[in-house]
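User: quick one, fold this
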Amino acid sequence: MASLNTQTNREIRYIQRMERKRVEQQNIDRSIRAANRNNISNTTSSTINKDVSTEVSNEIATLSKKKRTVNTRTSNSGVSFSSYFW
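Assistant:
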């Protein structure tokens, strides 16, 4: 009965060959995934940077417009409105 579970040299070589192929394929797949991840992250980060830059520029422009509007309103502070209330 012990001989039923014993592997022959040929079977051992076949299993080792299949294991090497599997490991090699895993390495290839891993390197492809890493390259894709790097390409995606580079593309995504540059897109995000552009979006953030645009958003910041728009916000700065909006704030500067608001500041000009506030400065225009406060520049007339020398005018007295007390005559309207009496």
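User: anything notable?
Assistant: DSSP finds two helices and no strands in the chain.
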